[in-house]
Amino acid sequence: MTKIYHNPRCGHSRTTLQILEERGLKPEVIEYLITPPSRAELEALISNAGLTVREAMRSKEAIYQELGLENPGLSDDQLLDAMMAHPILINRPFVVTDKGVRLCRPASEVEAIL
């Protein structure tokens, strides 16, 4: 089964979804701003993609600066707390296939797990 944690307003996310569909896949589309992953799901996505929690965050969001999340002294738990409270901080799109998990920025990253 293929899943995409999708934000339809994001160009990377739309392009990644298009690549999946062009390959004949019908992914489960999870609009994570409407239905955020659980903390355990988010931790698994990040870990399985080989990322750090900080690498999985959107640092360009205004809320990132407002909450002082650039502070290198913050723990992973604190960063995850922020992501759970403000799903807009979750970078996108994460794609899950039988071959693995990738944060598809750029969208071509999806090719590695197809």
Q: Short summary of the structure?
A:
With 114 residues, the chain is of the alpha+beta class. The protein has one domain (3-113): Glutaredoxin (3-Layer(aba) Sandwich). The chain has helices spanning 11-22, 39-48, 62-66, 76-85, and strands at 3-6, 28-31, 94-97, 100-103.
Describe this structure in words.
It catalyses: [glutaredoxin]-dithiol + arsenate + glutathione + H(+) = glutathionyl-S-S-[glutaredoxin] + arsenite + H2O. It comes from Eoetvoesiella caeni. Its EC number is 1.20.4.1. Belongs to the ArsC family. InterPro entries: Arsenate_reductase, Arsenate_reductase-like, Thioredoxin-like_sf. The structure is a single chain. This protein has 114 residues and is an alpha+beta fold. It has one domain (3-113): 3-Layer(aba) Sandwich (Glutaredoxin). 32% of the residues lie in helices and 14% in strands. The chain has four helices and four strands, in the order E-H-E-H-H-H-E-E. The chain has a four-stranded mixed beta sheet with strand order 2-1-3-4, with helices on both faces. Strand 3 (94-97) and strand 4 form a beta hairpin. The protein is globular. The N and C termini lie close together (11 Å). The model has no long low-confidence stretch (mean pLDDT 97).
Proportion of residues in β-strands: 5-15%
* Unreliable residue runs: none
Q: Tell me, what's the shape?
A: globular
Helix content: 25-40%
Q: What is the typical, i.e. mean, pLDDT?
A: 97
CATH architecture title = 3-Layer(aba) Sandwich
Structural class of the secondary elements?
alpha+beta
Q: Into how many domains do the coordinates divide?
A: 1
Distance between the termini: 11 Å
Per DSSP E runs of 2 or more residues, the count of β-strands stands at 4
